[in-house]
Specification:
The protein has 565 residues and is of the alpha+beta class. The chain is built from 13 helices and 26 strands. The chain has an 8-stranded mixed sheet, sandwiched between helices. It is 21% helix and 26% strand. It folds into 3 domains: 120 residues, no CATH class; 176 residues, Rossmann fold (3-Layer(aba) Sandwich); 216 residues, no CATH class.
């Protein structure tokens, strides 16, 4: 009997599923050149920049609309927005899957939400009018970040309430403050105090712009506490404009005819920021003229709301020719500055520019809660401290069809590997472009050609026979997110016997499977089954597979030769 090493082909090993294309991770968006948009549209109060997957094709295909978020200084241009939304290569990968990407940039993101709502409604109407078709095979996704999530919510809900079809299949809200946002009151008071003097310290000049932004409609209506309505020694309150926004949101509700997905960069496990309510978080002394001593504290929490529990929130001293000092105390019913939530870093950005920083100065933690996790999920703010993974009854209060959170607290509006995976799934999983029975998302995960029904999972494999040991070794490379079942038969036409099932992994593995030879000939069959990711709403984790490791044991016959990126 001759023993030889053979290259496996479809006669001896069939891979039963859609052909694998190697997927290479994208370069960080900040290092990339921003392309020119294929088209632009100037609307009332906004601009659309359209990045088509294939500029040669007429009409918009599978449009994905990104709506700009809060821009306090109103300086974010189109290139900056592209880089923000293309973090982790998101825009480019959407285009790889035939999605035309449109970015909405408000002329002034600080106007009242009723204006922003109208701008988004006009943008949606323009996109629908220019779609190549409005059908189940030409999906429409809207992604609103921060303020953009509120504006798109209002636009979609108002359209439905007025009986006007909006054509949107999926709406994704990323870190949108449905129940309110936060900018530490101590920082607002710091800004208010030091902008009341002539600016002799250049590092403080941006505070004038910030104070102006805080006086505009968007900030007044979204912030849970606002310096203009929070008196010394009293409970911190929101500005009166917030009442109008809350009423507008209640009247319109949430859209109901599209799939609603909320993503929070805040912790769903109750993880807080690295300081306690009432703790001093900032100290800076400028020893030259003008002499400045500034201290900020996390907003104290009132455990007994029946008593005035105002505590230190801000201390400011300024002396040039004449001196002035201010001591401000306040409190809030809930722990706010250190709550679980997507984070802001405006205080850290300021601190990094200040002169004369020495050992007596400090900043406790670089971030604060900007959008509480519960707010991003549409859950009432009184549950702000809740570990949602332990309280499914609270999670059930969310009006969204699906919710996703982070284990810790990440920057507000950030598109990282976690948020990118949720967005790609939301955009792709309901589509099957090539009608092969596998969604575009499945093919995205395993790397097959989503546009060709002829695509099959193929791999190079070989069989090594050893006359000394009497074993046959089947060697092949697995693909990500795919379960493999190895079967054997002594002759074609005879029943197949399952020998082993490989646990799916998140990356490719090179496998060597050994089996004892009992006859002079035989056949192996490898069946591949792509698997979906599954979201577990009770644990707030995406459980692709329980362990995501290849199970091996001395007698399993399986050996992992190497892992491939």
């Amino acid at each position: 009997m001759k023993f030889r090493k053979n290259k496996l082909n479809l006669r001896s090993c069939r891979i039963m599923a859609p052909a694998l294309i190697l997927m290479v991770g994208a370069q960080p968006a900040s290092a990339q050149t921003v392309p020119d948009p294929a088209e632009t549209y100037t609307g009332t109060g906004f601009t659309l920049c359209i990045y088509k997957a294939d500029p040669a094709l007429a009409g918009l295909r599978n449009p994905v609309l990104f709506v700009e978020g809060m821009d306090l200084y109103n300086v974010r241009n189109q290139e900056e927005l592209y880089r923000q939304f293309n973090q982790e290569g998101l825009i480019e990968e959407l285009q790889d899957y035939d999605r035309d990407v449109i970015i909405l940039n408000f002329d002034d993101a600080n106007k009242k939400l009723s204006n922003s709502k109208s701008y988004v409604g006009e943008a949606i109407g323009y996109i629908n009018a220019n779609r190549s078709s409005i059908s189940s095979t030409n999906s429409f996704t809207v992604i609103g970040i921060s303020l953009g999530g509120l504006a798109s919510r209002l636009a979609l809900a108002e359209s439905e309430n007025n009986g006007i079809p909006h054509g949107v299949d999926t709406w994704i809200s990323l870190d949108a403050p449905h129940e309110g946002a936060n900018l530490p009151l101590s920082f607002q008071k710091f800004t208010e105090f030091f902008t009341s003097f002539p600016t002799y310290t250049p590092e403080l000049e941006p505070l004038t712009t910030l104070l102006t932004a805080l006086s505009k409609e968007a900030a007044k209506s979204m912030l849970l506490v606002h310096h203009l309505n929070s008196a010394h020694g009293e409970a911190a309150l929101s500005e009166s404009k917030r009442d109008g926004l809350v009423q507008l949101l209640l009247e319109n509700g949430y859209p109901e005819t599209c799939r609603k997905i909320a993503i929070s960069n805040g912790s769903g496990l109750g993880a807080t920021q690295p300081f306690e309510p009432g703790e001093q978080i900032f100290q800076w002394e400028n020893p030259v003229l003008p002499y400045i001593d500034a201290r900020m504290y996390a907003l104290p929490e009132a455990w007994n709301q029946g008593n005035n529990q105002a505590k230190q929130t801000f201390i400011g001293i300024y002396y040039m020719v004449d001196g002035k000092n201010e001591e401000y105390t306040s409190y809030y019913p809930y722990s706010l500055d250190n709550a679980p939530g997507a984070t802001g870093n405006m205080i850290a950005e300021l601190y990094a520019t200040l002169p004369y920083i020495d050992g007596d100065d400090f900043l406790t933690g670089s971030n604060y809660c900007a959008v509480p996790t519960v707010s991003a999920l549409g859950i009432p703010i009184e549950y702000i401290d809740t570990d949602l993974s332990q309280h499914p009854e609270v999670l059930a209060l969310s009006p969204f069809d699906e919710v996703y959170t982070a284990p810790g607290n990440d920057p507000v509006g950030e598109i990282n590997t976690r948020t990118k995976s949720h967005i790609m799934r939301a955009v792709l999983e309901k589509a099957d472009t090539d009608a092969d029975g596998y969604s575009d998302y499945t093919e995205y995960l395993i790397g097959t050609d989503f546009s060709s029904a002829l695509s099959v999972l193929t791999c190079n494999a070989d069989i090594t026979l050893s006359p000394l040991t009497g074993n046959a070794s089947l060697n092949f490379e697995t693909r990500p997110y795919t379960r493999y079942v190895i079967s054997h038969t002594e002759a074609l036409g005879e029943p197949w016997t399952e020998l082993y099932t490989l646990t799916p992994a998140t990356e490719a593995q090179y496998i060597s499977f050994m089996s004892a030879m009992t006859n002079a000939s035989g056949f192996f069959k490898v069946t591949a089954e792509p698997l979906f990711t599954v979201f577990d709403a009770t644990t707030l984790q995406t459980t692709d597979f329980p362990d995501l490791v290849l199970e091996t044991s001395p007698d399993s016959g399986i050996n992992v030769i190497q892992s491939t990126e």
